[in-house]
């Protein structure tokens, strides 16, 4: 993969690459049925652009230029490789049967087979981490080192994941196609889960020095926008995009100037991205109409209530609790129950919320989930039970993955310890 950094024409290549790479790779995979070959010739096309565009200028239709260049490189390579001779002949026969079509330079839209690639990269036969890695590599256009940095793993480890995923696609003969109407309901949730996993890691990093990774969250939003354009009638696609937009709109207010964590109740809401909120709010009705809502649509509705409120006090907590009741029925999990308990505490008071949290104490999933002891600690503080709160804060500090989260919890711990001393 060529280095795409730079200014001038190099910067133009970077912008085109981000916009066009997923479409380019999907078109090549659809044509040649070989992900490795498609990646190699796509990289060669980018290298050719870096050589030609600074001299000749960026073409009017850069995506078509890249596709034509990559296709020619692929055909030349196949002709030189006897192992691919039969495949090339078959492709030529198929092309003749399909009839002549205008070359990409001649006009018309660049073919868009990205939807096929979405379902291939997110196939349930692949391991969960491999699905995420392959989606970022093939559809977001991130290089292997960039994907490795995004998930804080060595480059060699990420390269192995991507190679493993490609090998699985070949060995299992996972098809490069969009599922049929009867298959789509079973396959689409896997695609959405991959995008949501990417976004979650960007919105709230699992480890490291920073609370957020905005570039990763923005890639997830960009991919969700593409998926929504490709599947505009799918309500859960609209719901996921709405959820991402409504949450990502708060990114600037989630950290202080020093990178410290700022809780929702303390955020300067004038720093929220109102244009992004408007885009998200416009999608929520489409996600909820036309049948029973899906989990992403319900979560988007919850996020919308937060974004529409002037402050925490004026938030419609009864409606949020009601939506969590719906979500708990649709997608029961201890994390959803935890979030519902916090909302109940805002509606009915800390004692009511704490009783619900204590009822979740035996859930294995919450034992390593730092928001659980952190939520208990906050409610214990509101009830004046400071020694218990301090113990819960210490537990949360030990589980938190990022330094901003740990620093925030340490500040809360010190406040609880001071309050406890004052009481004594």
Automatic annotation (TrEMBL):
It comes from Planomonospora alba. It holds the Pfam family Sigma70_r4_2. Keywords: Sigma factor, Transcription, Transcription regulation. SUPFAM superfamilies: Sigma2 domain of RNA polymerase sigma factors, Sigma3 and sigma4 domains of RNA polymerase sigma factors. The lineage of its organism: Bacteria, Bacillati, Actinomycetota, Actinomycetes, Streptosporangiales. This is RNA polymerase sigma factor. Belongs to the sigma-70 factor family. ECF subfamily. Residues 121-169 form the RNA polymerase sigma factor 70 region 4 type domain. Residues 187-287 form the DUF6596 domain. The keyword Transcription applies. Transmembrane segments: none annotated. The keyword Iron-sulfur does not apply. Residues 19-82 form the RNA polymerase sigma-70 region domain.
